Structures are given as structure tokens and as C-alpha cells.
Amino acid sequence: MTPAPPSSAWRAPTPPEAEPRSLPLTALRGWEAEDHAAALAAYRETCGAARDPALARACRNARAVGPLGQEQAERYFEANFRAEPLAGSGVLTAYFAPEYPARRRPDDAFSAPVRPKPADLQIVDAGLFDPTQAGRPGAARDTGDSPLAPYPDRAAIEAAPAAHALAWMRPEDLFFLQIQGSGVLTFEDGTRMKALYAANNGRAFVGIANALRDQGLLARDNTSGEAIRAWLAAHRGPQADAIMRLNPRYAFFSLVPDDGRQPVGSANLPLPPGRALAMDTAYHQPGELYWIDAGAPILQGAFPTYRRLAMALDTGGAIRGDIRADLYLGAGAAAGTEAGRVRHTLRLYRLVPKDASP
Pick from 293, 249, 289: which is nearest to 267 by CA? Predict the structure, then answer.
């Protein structure tokens, strides 16, 4: 048996210092550089989504003080909120409201139908088909028989006739519209219509970036949204269709006249660009306020960091887990280019009213 080393030669390892359960906002990285006035304005507009009593009080207080300048807004947040770090790290991505051309009738390029919610689609608890997804919304086909059957996947839906198509789009544009969840369509006569999310087929979302990278079709650091869409457009037809069908999830839409406003999230409020987060409602309540600290991007051309205040105002089929967020960046091509490059390592801090119980 080897003798123990003398006490002077050995020290017990020092455990890593645990992050405090609560931090002052001044301790957050990037806090001083934040546009606090803009953050407070967005918070005041959307904080009514909060269901928690303490957050509801904080919302009433914020609305009562009215608009504030940069320094006053910074002091307001610091006086009324504390930051609670969420353990571990995750992923920040981003989304936007796209604007795409569309046609009333199909042609060689505009061959993908924008389908309305089918009459036979029934919203059910996803746990009906997968116990691990209990409590989440799923979709079934109501055939009049029992039991209900899972709704068909993307490939089967696309193989069916589209007698009631609302519009026709280029296939890669429709694919991205389904990922983003809403957008604006411009028809050949100049008419602009909003495409609003109506339902999905209940299948799990599967990203195609990994497949494009693993098959050597795109470089590892070049799987941004713009790169993927460009590849799909360049290979339109059976090759692109096969890649898109790796994602079995399929979204249905309704069309309404474009009112020029930002899209409405799942909290039923317009999404403030750069301040709204899609999050997993299994872990985050609508209307909660967060500090996002995201860096170490993996895609070419990405901004190095995203550090800002943002609110949980939306959900998304691919947004699962506690340290996972999708940042809404606005409408149009510029927002789309930026959003497609966001894949950053994320740290999350929940901002809690100081009068709430710790």
C-alpha cells in the first residue's frame, strides 16, 4: 500500500465557486452597454402577457412610470429587478418575418401550395402517440374511426392534391416560411397578404443543416439560413425536395390583408424586434423578462455577441429545453440574413421583481 503524502504536499481540490442564486443587474456582462430606454419601452408594451402576480405588479409599475430616458430606465431596472442565473448553457438562434413573392396559380417556379388547415386535422395531446411528449400540442387525423391516427408527415402531405391552395410559392420559400411561422406574401398584382400560422401536422421538427453538412453539400461553418436557402434554390426539384422532406413537420396557414404591423406571437401580442424570445413553455412563462448573454458563434458572418433584455412572447416547434431561445429580429431581407447566422452559446438570466419571494 502506498503511503499517503505528507500534509504539506497535498491539498484537497477547491470546488468551483457556485454562481450566486441572485445577482444585481450591474453584474451582468454587457449591462452598461444595453439600450435601457428601448428595453423598457418594449417591456412596457408587452409585459401584460405575464401571468405571475409579481410580474403583473411589475408590469403595472412600469406602465405607471411612463417612458424614461437611458439613464433613468437603467436605474429603474436596477431598482426593481434582480437576476437569477439559469444553470448551464444552451443555444440561441433567431427568426424573422420573411417577405416572399407568391402567385395565384402555379407555374414551373411557383409550384409549392400554401395549404390551409385541413378539415380532418384535430389538435390533440402529443402524449397520445408519444408519452414523452405529454402536455404538448400534437395533431391527429380524424377519420371517423377509433383510435385517432397521427397526422401524415411532410412527404405524404406534399403528395396529396392541393385543391384549396391559398397561394403558390417557390418550394424553398415555403419551406422557410413554415420554419419562421409567418410572413408577408406579395402577389403579381402588388397585393400584399400576411401568411399567419394556422396549425402543424404534429411531427417533430428536424433541422436540415446537419444533413447538408454531413452529406458534404455545405461546409460546416456555412449552414446559415441564407446558405441553406441558396442551396435549395440551386437544386430545386427532386434533390432539394429530398432534403426538405428530412424535416417531417409541415405548417398550414391562413391569409389576411397585410396591415404593416409586426407579427403576433403565441402570447397574442406583436413581437418587438430584437426584444422577443420564442421559448419552451415547459420551462418559461409568457411575459417573463430575461437577460440573454450569447457568444461563440459557429456560422460565418455572425455578430460576435447578443447581450440584451428580452421577453418570452412566443413558442416554436424546434425550441425545446430550458436554456434554449429563438430571438425575433424583425421583418424583411436584412433581418433574415442576420437571423440565419445566429447560432450562439447561450447563458440565460431570469429577471425577477425584487418584491417577489426568492
Answer: 289
